[in-house]
Structures are given as structure tokens and as C-alpha cells.
């Protein structure tokens, strides 16, 4: 059965924004990016800009929760990644747009600027996320 793509509207923005505790939404723009599993819209609110991830099919919400926990863990360790925006009750998704959506802080990547663009080493990144073995000292 072919999947039908939704087109979010400003009406969805006025439902999604308060669902994540951001107050009334000004507008949605996009989709800004599209992948095999879904698309990303830009939500513009008085609180700032946010990325709204919308899936084409219902995701495994347990997996989505684990992914959010992982993202928050590596961000706290210093890995450059967008902040996860949770609903006021702590959920990482909301059905306010008629299907599950997830919010992240908006990061406008633009063009890389060379030396000013941070590029942590793979060893550093793995050190942040890998379990640390007990010290032998």
C-alpha cells in the first residue's frame, strides 16, 4: 500500500507549538528536508525556530524515546547535536498534528566555514558515548 505524504499547515503549527509548551505558533515552512521515513518542517514561534519531524508511517515510539535519551546523553557530554524538545509532560512526541511529530531545536547549518566549523575526532565522539571500563589503577 503506497504511503501518502501529509502537508502540514499553519493550523498544524498552532496545534504542535502549544503541545510542546512553546505558546502560539507563527508559521510552518517546508518541508525543509525529506527522507525515506519522513520529512522535517521549520516551526517559527515567538520562542524561536524549531525542527518538526513528521513520519510517513507510525514510528516505534519506544525506539523514538530511546533515541531521544541517547541524543540528550551525548549532547550533555559535549557532542554537537540539536536539543530534543519534549512536551510539558516529558514525552518526545505529540499527535497534535493528526499523527506523531517530534521537535528539535532548529540549527541552521548554512555553508561550512572551514576552520570555524567544529569537527570533533571520531575517537573523542566514541569516548563520549562508549561505556567506560573500570580503571585498573
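^ Assign residues to that structure.
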Amino acid at each position: 500500500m503506497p504511503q501518502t505524504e501529509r502537508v502540514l499547515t499553519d493550523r498544524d503549527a498552532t496545534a504542535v507549538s502549544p503541545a510542546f509548551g512553546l505558546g502560539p505558533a507563527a508559521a510552518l515552512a517546508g518541508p525543509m528536508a525529506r527522507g525515506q521515513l519522513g520529512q522535517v518542517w521549520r516551526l517559527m514561534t515567538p520562542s524561536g525556530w524549531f525542527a518538526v519531524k513528521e513520519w510517513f508511517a507510525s514510528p516505534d515510539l519506544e525506539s523514538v524515546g530511546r533515541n531521544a535519551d541517547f541524543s540528550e546523553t551525548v549532547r550533555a557530554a559535549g557532542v554537537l547535536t540539536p536539543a530534543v524538545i519534549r512536551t510539558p509532560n516529558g514525552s518526545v512526541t505529540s499527535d497534535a498534528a493528526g499523527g506523531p511529530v517530534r521537535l528539535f531545536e532548529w540549527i541552521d547549518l548554512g555553508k561550512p566555514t572551514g576552520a570555524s566549523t567544529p569537527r570533533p575526532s571520531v575517537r573523542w565522539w566514541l569516548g563520549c558515548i562508549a561505556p567506560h571500563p573500570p580503571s585498573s589503577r
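The chain has a mean pLDDT of 81.
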